[in-house]
Amino acid sequence: MILTVDIGNSNICFAIHAEDTPEPVFFERIHTNHNKTALEYMVDIRTIFELHHVSFTTVTDCALSSVVPVVTPGIEDALQSLLSCRVFRITPFVNLPYGANADDISPVGSDILCDNAGTILQYGYPAMTFDLGTATVASSLDDKGNLDGVLITAGVRTSLNSLVSRTASLPQITLDPPKSVLGENTAEAMRSGIIYGTAGLIDGIIDRTEQETGLRYTVVATGGLSRFIAPYCRHEISLDPTLLMKGMWSLLRIN
């Protein structure tokens, strides 16, 4: 079995895969906590494995992606204590299944590298990938399978939290489906604004990128908030919540 671990700003995701297939046997997430010790993360990881009746001895390889440097050592120490195999860190210097149209790929986050590895594996190219988490990250693969570029903007929750914290009378809201584009009360107006606003942002990015490149993309959405937004986009978008983990599985196999 292969274990993939993604440390994101909001959540840490864990997936177990069979050796010969990228689709996870199980996929779980916990909140990212900067103050937890390696021992506390060990307890979390052990609990996840016990819930799914998986033994650590069955894990033959482990891949780790992180965009939160302060949390990485604790998770890595926890994994090394629990597993008998190495922990393979995803960096811009690993072998990738695609090239890049940039002179220097080193500033690209490991989450973006994994997303695009998963996209090539599952959907081919040209393709655009939208990862909707703490940030909304768009990236594209051109018709030669090269990473063409990346766009990063504030994520859904980040925007919403900023809106609520910086205003005196706007409430916290859920991301329930909006009744219409224009809401009839404050909560509905906020819900419509964040969902339709983000959907319009995604549609606009796709349109402008296709106009700029002359390509027609397969579009994939992933990340914890993608399921709330993708259904409201005008473009056809494939939802793939475990895309990043599949990309890690692919990168581990390649390397």
Descriptors:
Nucleotidyltransferase, domain 5, 11 strands, alpha/beta, 5-stranded mixed β-sheet, about 35% helix, about 260 residues, 2 domains, about 25% strand
Task: Give helix % range.
Answer: 25-40%
Unreliable stretches covering 5 or more consecutive residues: none
Going by CATH, the homologous superfamily of the largest domain would be ATPase, nucleotide binding domain
Principal-axis shape equals: globular
What's the number of helices? 7
Rg measurement, Å: 19 Å
Rounded mean pLDDT is: 92
Amino- and carboxy-terminal Cα gap: 16 Å
Strands of the biggest beta sheet: in what spatial order? Answer: 6-9-8-7-10-11
Q: Examine the coordinates and then state which fold CATH places here, giving the name of the CATH topology of the largest domain.
A: Nucleotidyltransferase, domain 5
The class by helix and strand makeup works out as alpha/beta
H and E string: EEEHEHEEHEEEHHEHEH
Question: What does this protein structure show overall?
Answer:
With 255 residues, the chain is an alpha/beta fold. It folds into 2 domains: 2-89, ATPase, nucleotide binding domain (Nucleotidyltransferase, domain 5); 106-248, ATPase, nucleotide binding domain (Nucleotidyltransferase, domain 5, 2-Layer Sandwich), CATH 3.30.420.40. It is built from 7 helices and 11 strands. The protein has helices at residues 38-51, 72-82, 110-123, 156-165, 186-213, 226-229, 243-254, and strands spanning 2-7, 11-17, 24-31, 61-66, 87-89, 99-100, 127-132, 135-141, 146-154, 218-222, 238-239. The chain is globular, with a radius of gyration of 19 Å. It starts with a strand and ends with a helix.
